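#struct-pred

JT: dropping the chains for the assembly here, can someone run the whole complex?
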Amino acid sequence: MRLLLTLFVVVISGCVQRMAATEPLRVCSDPNNLPFSNQRLEGFENKIAELVAGDLGTVVEYTWWAQRRGFIRNTLNAGLCDVVVGLPHDADAAWTTTPYYRSTYVFVARRARALHIRSFDDVLLRRLRVGVQVIGDDGANSPPAHALSRRGIVQNLVGFSVYGDYRLNSPPSRIVTAVADGEIDLAAVWGPLAGYFAARQREPLDVTPISTEVDGGLPLAFDLSMAVRRNDTVRLKQLNRFIDRHRADIERILDDFHVPRLTAREQGT
Amino acid sequence: MAMTTIRAQASFMHAPFCGRAVRTIFLLGLAVVLVACQQEEHTVGRKHINQESSLTPRLETQPSTGEDGNWVMPAKDYASTRFSGLDQINRDSVKQLGVTATFSTGFVRGHEAAPLVVNNTMYIVTPFPNVLYALDLTKPGAPVKWKYEPKPLAAAQGVACCDVVNRGASYAAGTIFYNTLDNRTIAVDAETGQPRWTTTLGDINKGETITMAPLVVKDKVLVGNSGGELGVRGWLTALFTDSGKIAWRAYHTGPDKDVLIGPRFKPFYEHSRGTDLGIHTWPGEAWKQGGGTVWGWISYDPTLNAIYYGTSNPGPWNEDQRPGDNKWTAGLFARDADSGEALWFYHTSPHDLFDYDDVNESVLVDLPMAGTTRKVILRPDRDGYIYVLDRLTGEALSADAFVHITSTNGIDLKKGRPIVNEAKKPVIGKVVREICPASPGGKDWSPSAYSPRTGYLYIPANNLCMDFESSEANYIAGTPYVGANVRMYAGPGGNRGEFIAWDPIARQKAWSIREDFPVWSGVVVTGGDVAFYGTLDGWFKAVDAKTGEVLWQFRTGSGIVSQPIAYQGPDGKQYVAVLSGVGGWSGAIVSGELDPRDTTAALGFVNAVADLPQATTKGGMLYIFGLP
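RK: done, full complex below.
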């Protein structure tokens, strides 16, 4: 009897595992936002999603949605998918995994200018045309925009909307091409965006991490995680296991995309 | 107190064991609350003025031919009074009011538009996808005569800041003019439903949308854009009604030539005088993404040949990133109705700190003041003050608080600017509590109505304050940053809304009705001395325009965030119509199915109306009411 029961349990659990394995990994992603993701699956989040799916013996099924205000609410939390590959670890909207990378805002400049600016306190910042990413959501903007205005550096700032012009490829990238084109002298940009696009300009560009991780109480460096719906314990554990086992693979992908990284503060927690 | 009851039960509803018993308790609780609310309705500071006295304000722009029974523009008339002279429905007969027709629009997002009535046809515009329906009022049940589907780009939905709303249409010369969320102005043959022309005025890819109702003035239709939060540069555009070709466009930031500021521009106050202030009151090039959009109301004075309209808040920069007055955002323009040339500007919120868009209605009345009659504008503003401005000069004659205010310490009428309370300045990374009014203001776009019979302005008001709190990690387009946690909640008294009859001569409330929820509907007031408005939980109310006594009410299927109208049917009878269908900024928690636990959703509004999903459900429906 006990043998029968054991057999039964084994059979059932096998079925469950196989069923789970054949279900696709449902991911919500921005269709037009390199280096993170695009519909041609060219972003590092696309590569990581494929790695996760491969590990689970399944395939990725995408729901495409521009990553704007309400993205998590309209996609993950609306049940259109089960995983979002990139979200700040501290975000409230969903549960997040162990961080799989930590990056920071960087300064981007033409190498030929030899500016070597690393700090918001560099006196040159008052004289140059400095591009900043503008968000304007809930009265908030990118941390460098706040750090500069806190120092009274406002007259020479040029704003680049993170929304950009959505008809163009990877709309937020224009802040980097503006440096290469000489439209601005310097840009303070989120690392992954800067690293990827700086490497793709004909004009050699320097990408320099900003020297501080916190300025005036606002963080410039962020831990990035995958996100699942609140209470989706099973998926969270699954992804945490994946991140633990595949750190080297993830690192390789991030290297390929020139993502500047800091040592993850919360790694291994 | 009523609100506390609902809140407690709302959080109880989230418990996993929530079942039928809890629902029953909840419904019982709701009934108790509703009764309590009704008991709470009371008049304050009641003051009687002699209605027949010579002091009764007269309306300059009221047509002398009297009431024609139609409703051809959003605010009924160019003076934006939303006063209908029809008087069959009065304080006695209103009790017999009943539903004579209904119509489901088929959409569930916020319905903010006013129906139009002309030639025995009713026209209604839905939220996205902006379908225009013509209903035949000559037939029983008002069946659909035709419908026009502009099929706006689906992507426009992702650009709109606050629900995918539309505030209505205008009629002129056999044509319905209205706007689509994807930035088109469309002229549709009112008889056949065939489009006459379509002009694309903006680009959703740059963050622009259009949600406002256009106004037709002589041979031009006036349209403004939305999207101040997304780095849009705001404008008002005039198109020729016959061709759809652009006659002129006035921007609200940048050089004078773009703003149509020239020799005729004579602002009353010193701080609005100078050259290219639309550049010089901004740092560097910030004006290029300065906001100042036009998503509210336009009024027109035919005798002065001037239009009046307000501009939205500056954006997307933070206040410390845009030192200066940030002209010409968050203020009121007077322009020549033909050429668009600026005549004057009143800067309501120079260097806006609190998201106080200045898009609210400008009600044009002639008011007896200090022995003379002055042509004035009544403006119940987001900042919580009701302004009385001189129509000819832009001088602020008075500015009185109509709600609880902490964000400013009054208006300096000599300088023509608010006295900002520095302690309430929102700063990222700092906690600032009890900023009143909250960002939606003492009232938002929902338009008031003015009765030349009572002399009162009927104001749908909010009683909301907000905390600007410690920050949380946000993420847009792959870019992490720290946002502010904005939480809104009821102001003093605990009621979140109020329906106010304001006496502009006595400069105080004549009476008011406390409402549990923010009042987010427009108002119509009639020759029968009845004022109609709706509530977020779906009650459509008729109140005595003189005393504030609730005479009649009807529970519609969904919350009301639209603009009721009164008209005369083909049978010669008076009717009242309103769209029900909760949504917009205040109702997004229901129409957008936001999580009530996410207290900062809808820019913090969700916290203030977390109980709304228990009080109403979504769904767009037209109701027409008439007498037996």
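JT: nice. The first strand of chain B starts at residue 83 and ends at 84. Chain B touches chain A through 54 residues (CB under 8 Å).
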